[in-house]
UniProtKB/TrEMBL annotation:
SUPFAM superfamilies given in the database record: Thiamin pyrophosphokinase, catalytic domain (SSF63999), Thiamin pyrophosphokinase, substrate-binding domain (SSF63862)
GO biological process, one term: thiamine diphosphate biosynthetic process
Pfam family name, one: TPK_catalytic
Keywords: ATP-binding, Kinase, Nucleotide-binding, Transferase
Protein name listed in UniProt: Thiamine pyrophosphokinase
Length: 249
């Protein structure tokens, strides 16, 4: 069985991402425009979820860079008239999905899997501004990690077979799901010398403060390579307040 290797090189300003990715922008202010700019430049497809388009509009006007997404999708209750006009004039596909039983995050995933860029065998998703803000929205984003991993969303089996990783990015935070079994996380990628890999890691992560959070319930957790490795026979996550590793490196 192949050991999953997770490599968030898409965050590095110059390194090539491990997989092509779709950039999904969610509705919060864009507080790290430099990081956002290079994520935008490398994306194979850009999707703006409803009110996130207001922030793209504002950033475009403020910086003089045209952040016109490939599609705007949602129930459109948050899209401002000025942003709508701005993007309509640029020919953006604006898709209204009034269903109130799904979120704009879920609507964007469904649309994206129905419109995957051709010729890409494996595609990651980068959900920008998916953490922070309202706590219920952050928990929903974490829930999406599990739905994404299980393929529990509308879409063809062919489209689901092309999904890579879902990465939740909200500077300074990055969250992703470790599947059951052994996983390898290479923050600096797997190519080059150890010194080159360390340099790439430090450009993005600095000292690399991290946590290991078994939020799905009881889990056996063992790590190697952290400053304070853990070896829990049972990590019970947030359910009983035990088995959490925070402020690790």
């Amino acid at each position: 069985m192949t050991t999953p290797t997770l490599t968030p090189l898409f965050l590095h300003p110059t390194a090539k991402p491990a997989n092509p990715y779709i950039l999904l922008i969610l509705n919060q202010p864009i507080t790290s425009p430099r990081l956002f700019h290079h994520l935008w430049q490398k994306a194979s497809l850009t999707i703006s979820a409803d009110g996130a388009s207001n922030h793209l509009h504002n950033l475009s006007l403020r910086t003089g860079t045209d952040y016109t997404p490939d599609v705007i999708i949602g129930d459109l209750d948050s899209l401002s008239p000025s942003a709508r006009t701005y993007f309509e004039e640029r020919g953006v596909n604006i898709v209204r999905v009034p269903d109130q039983d799904s979120t704009d995050f879920g609507k964007a995933l469904e649309w994206g899997f129905a419109n995957l860029p051709p010729g890409l065998e494996k595609v990651d998703w980068v959900a920008f501004n998916s953490l922070g803000g309202r706590m219920d929205a952050s928990f929903h984003s974490l829930h999406q990690l599990f739905l994404f991993a299980d393929g529990a969303f509308p879409g063809t089996e062919e489209a689901k077979s092309r999904r890579g990783e879902l990465w939740l990015v909200s500077p300074p935070n990055l969250a992703f799901l470790l599947p059951a079994g052994k996983s390898v996380v290479l923050l600096g990628g797997g190519e080059g010398t150890e010194e080159e890999r360390r340099a790439r890691k430090e450009v993005v992560f600095g000292r690399g403060v991290c946590g290991v959070l078994p939020v799905a319930g009881e889990r056996v957790v063992r790590t190697r390579g952290l400053r304070w490795d853990v070896d829990w026979m049972v990590g019970v996550g947030v359910t009983r307040g035990l088995g959490l590793s925070t402020s690790n490196e």
